[in-house]
Amino acid sequence: MADFAWWQRGVIYQLYPRSFQDGDGDGVGDLAGIHQRLDYLAWLGVDAVWIPPIYPSPMADFGYDITDHCAIDPLFGTLAEFDALLAEAHERGLRVILDFVPNHTSDMHPWFQDALRGRDAAHRDWYLWADPAADGGPPNNWRSHFGGPAWTLDPVTGQYYLHAFLKEQPDLNWRNPAVARAMAQVMRFWLDRGVDGLRLDATWHLIKDEHLRNNPPDPSWHAGLPEHEKLAHVYTSDRPEVQRLVCELRQVVDEYPDRVLIGELYLPIERVVAYYGTAGNGIHLPANALLIGAPWDADSIGAAADRYEALLPVFGWPNWALGNHDKPRIAGRVPPGHSRLAALLLLTLRGTPTLYYGDELGMCDGEIPPAAIRDPIERNMPGLGRGRDPQRTPMQWDDSPNAGFSPGQPWLPVAAGFEALNVAGQRADDASLLTLYRRLLQLRRAEPALAVGRYAGQGAPPGILRYEREHDGRYLTVVLNFNETPRRIPGLQGRVLLSTLGRDEGRDIDDSLLLLPGEGAILTGRPGPAAG
Ligand code: NOJ
């Protein structure tokens, strides 16, 4: 295990700062709140916490629109509080990863405010400007992910500026070396403070076609999908130059020992793995969203895992996630009861897992009444099911008013049913999902085969996913029953270390194991020949 970095052995916990714990009673989560809950994270047994943006922001995109990269928004606290939080986290053996948002700033950032002063402004070329098309409209057909054109006209200077997301989030011009230098300084600011890693937001967007060519239509588009998906984002995403840029960002991280660079990349998996770079000079963990997108069945998930393993470069360390603050929660994407299977999968596939806050309880997407909608995606493109408020509802700590999240009015409504689904209740229940997560996390620490071992997919009967993990001659077999009926899994020998339903644990199996619907198990011992 010592040969592996902490970010390879460990498990990352992603929280959403507005929604984790409110420490000052204003209804919005903050650093003081996170501080209060560090003991919970240590108790749960995760190794690192990823905190999405906490920097000064007008909050048009809830912190992903930054006005000062080197400060803390007063809504969340102060820099001194951040330093104290980092120190306290480190004292508990928890690492801290921050979001780094290089693609865009807020339109209120002093750089952009200066750029607006005129075509000769010092920071004009820090952003992407273009003259109107012949008809006076936007320079080309590029669309924003958040609805409407990706271009907004600045009437004063008569040029359009580019924004992949909201018009309040102008894209930076990464071809300008001054931008690269300034953003490297931002990275150093946080790495100097002792931050253990950075998560690059919207990595695949950083460079756009310099000729501003129109994106071609995407033939797979159909009614019901957002309008920007009508186009294939050939000229606005995953441009070859992004690879070079990523290597430069990695070099900055490598100035510091033991730090990790994570990259957000919604691309086909064969393109995601390209971001490891060559000879490991790219992103340590290019985010793998396969479990977020794959249909929930044994064949699809097994095939996705095998394919990913086959595509990884030899130096590439895998990673997995079931969800994040941009995607519907796992509990609602799987059949009832399968949250346990999902936990087993996340924590036993090879690679660094990222656990999204509340998923350890089985939190579901909250119902957001129209008047409570906050997410700009839902506001701009209502009814398409892309709104992100439902997966950002307050953490459910206990059955007190507002689920123990805040004494004030929460910024988003607490999801219904929190009285029965919360940390306090599940901590006291040996059969709860939270207890299962904690047991799995403990087992990963105790069993290097689970944390860092080799992976081999194995043949299995229909609806069963089966794979082996091995480290230093220690073999473990993981079996998951996706069927709605009990299944006997042949060709198994060994001791049941853990069952997601707590059955048969400690029992020696010398032939086959019966799994109930939605049950999964981890067994020790070298298995017999895999059954096809
Ligand atoms: C990806 C982030 O995860 C998302 O929340 C944000 O809205 C966009 N990037 C824009 O920064």
UniProtKB/TrEMBL annotation:
Keyword Hydrolase: yes or no? yes
SUPFAM superfamilies, per this entry? (Trans)glycosidases
Q: Which organism is it from?
A: Chitiniphilus eburneus
List, alphabetically, the PANTHER family matched.
ALPHA-AMYLASE FAMILY MEMBER (PTHR10357), NEUTRAL AND BASIC AMINO ACID TRANSPORT PROTEIN RBAT (PTHR10357:SF179)
In Swiss-Prot or TrEMBL terms, this protein is called: DUF3459 domain-containing protein
Region (Disordered) location:
375-408
- Record InterPro entries: GH, GH13_cat_dom, O16G_dom_2
UniProt GO BP: oligosaccharide catabolic process
Give the record's family classification.
Answer: Belongs to the glycosyl hydrolase 13 family.
Pfam families xref list: Alpha-amylase (PF00128)
